[in-house]
Write a structure and sequence with these properties.
Layout: H1 2-24, E1 43-44, E2 51-52, E3 80-83, E4 91-94, H2 122-230, H3 240-244, H4 259-294, H5 300-338, E5 355-358, E6 362-367, E7 371-376, E8 383-391, E9 401-406, E10 417-423, E11 429-437, E12 440-446, H6 459-467
Parallel strand pairs: 10-12
Antiparallel strand pairs: 1-2, 3-4, 5-6, 6-7, 7-8, 8-9, 9-10, 11-12
The structure holds alpha-D-mannopyranose (MAN).
Length: about 475
């Protein structure tokens, strides 16, 4: 009995509230402004532009400059109509849409005096919207958890890299010491080798000079012999007649040596000598090679010194290579450490990976913190769109955009560049690429790295969806 009484009392009270709300709040007024519309007093236009009897409110005639006296009619061109949309999200629409035959409010309240037969769909719409919001929130939460593990991994990689750098620095120091040692050994071995070889250098030079002189003498003798062979009268001058007497100069085989043939053949003779010279050189080379093969190059003691120096040089080269490899590895690690991988190292794990997106013409590839590439689907070759540049989001959200700049020059234009917009998703993926301006590319990258924690759903807010202003 007691509970039945309590229930009826609740109905009366809540009914009274509803009725009171209807009375106290003229059509189209948002609850927060209800107190300005008191039917027991004159109405003050909300912008202070005038005071009118309360009966003028919603009388379909615009009295206030701000339209606040006609919240529920289309009388004021600048007014707004508030739809409560119980069960869904409240909405303010321009007054001009009131009773215009189009259902703007899901609770149909904007079409109270039209023949449009709008029905209240707020509950269904509200339910669908809440379901969608919950789904998105869940995705965001999942992304947020993934981000936490990206942070953890990023920090771990950073720490490991720091450790590796220290290790490499030590290794480099040791390698440098070894290299210096090997350099000393090399210098020490090269001193006696140099002295020993100097002796050989003199002998070698002498030998080469002799070969040259022999060759010259032989050439001259041959030339003299050939000349004498043609110089019939031995007067030291070759005349055309003397040449004409030699059948070998009859190049056209007509049985005679013409004056022209004789003159031409004088030139050919020179060529013959030249050919002969080449043959001669080849023979000399062969001789030299034979000599090299047959005779040991150095005496035993010198050879020993050369061998020791060679070994020392090899060992030094190896030690030097090791230092240079370490310096290179160290530099690349240090460069990587200097990059900004986000405030919590959350983007670091993306380095070393590449993400692709293919449209009708091109395949685009983004390798975070490295480069952006464009590759035609048909044909070969890649176009470099940009190298990792910087974070380029707005001040309050700097890590929402990346810029890859200094790509390949655009024909008759600037160098290519790629702007990467980053948004939250449960996996890292390139979801689209456009070229809004020639040679300026816009990439869309989805990644958990930017998934912030979803706002806690406020109990009051959620109740507003379900029981607003009932
Ligand atoms: C290539 C591609 C295009 C670009 C033109 C500019 O075809 O890189 O994206 O617009 O060059 O000439």
């Amino acid at each position: 009995m007691k509970s039945v009484l309590a229930f009826s009392l609740f109905c009366v009270v809540s009914g009274a509230v509803v009725r009171a709300a209807e009375v106290l709040r003229p059509r189209g007024v948002v609850l927060s402004k209800a107190s300005f519309y008191d039917p027991t007093r004159d109405f003050n236009c909300l912008d202070g532009s005038g005071t009118i009897p309360f009966s003028y409110v919603n009388d379909d005639y615009c009295d206030c400059q701000d339209g606040s006296d006609e919240p529920g009619t289309a009388a004021c061109p600048n007014g707004f109509f508030h739809c409560t949309n119980a069960g869904h999200v409240p909405l303010n629409i321009p007054s001009s849409r009131v009773n215009d035959g189009v259902c703007d409010c899901c609770d149909a309240s904007d079409e109270y005096a039209s023949s449009s037969n709008c029905v209240d769909t707020c509950r269904e719409l509200g339910r669908a919207a809440r379901e969608e919001a919950a789904k998105q929130r869940e995705e965001r939460m999942k992304g947020y958890h993934l981000r936490q593990s990206m942070i953890e991994d990023g920090r771990k990689i950073k720490k490991e890299a720091e450790g590796k750098i220290e290790e490499l620095k030590k290794e480099k120091e040791e390698a440098e010491a070894v290299r210096n040692e090997k350099e000393e050994v090399k210098k020490t071995a090269e001193e006696p080798e140099k002295i020993a070889l100097e002796k050989y250098q003199a002998v070698e030079e002498e030998r080469k000079a002799k070969i040259d002189a022999d060759k010259k003498a032989k050439d001259e003798a041959e030339a003299r012999e050939a000349f004498a062979h043609i110089d019939n009268n031995g007067d030291g001058v070759l005349t055309v007649e003397e040449l004409q007497s030699r059948q070998t100069f009859d190049t056209n085989r007509d049985g005679q040596v013409s004056e022209e043939e004789a003159r031409d053949d004088t030139d050919e003779d020179e060529e013959d000598y030249e050919l002969h010279d080449e043959d001669h050189e080849d023979i000399l080379k062969e001789d030299e090679q034979k000599e090299e093969e047959e005779e040991p190059k150095y005496d035993e003691d010198t050879q020993k010194l050369v061998d020791i120096a060679n070994e020392a040089r090899e060992q030094f080269d190896e030690a030097d290579r090791r230092v240079r490899d370490l310096v290179r590895e160290l530099r690349s690690l240090e460069e990587s450490q200097e990059k900004d991988y986000g405030p919590e190292e959350e983007f670091r794990v993306l380095e070393g990976n590449c993400y692709e997106y293919t449209d009708r013409e091109y395949t685009y590839r983004l390798c975070p913190f490295d480069k952006a590439i464009q590759k035609p689907k048909s044909g070969h070759g890649e176009t470099r769109l940009g190298q990792w540049g910087e974070w380029s989001g707005p001040e309050e959200n700097r890590y929402s955009r990346m810029l890859y700049s200094n790509g390949q020059a655009c024909w008759n234009g600037p160098t290519r560049s790629a702007d990467v917009k980053i948004y939250c998703g449960t996996e890292t993926k390139l979801t689209g690429v456009t070229e809004p301006n020639r040679c300026e590319y816009l990439f869309f990258l989805r990644t958990p790295a930017v998934c912030t924690k979803p706002e806690e759903i406020n109990e009051d807010e959620s109740s507003e969806y379900t029981h607003t202003e009932l």
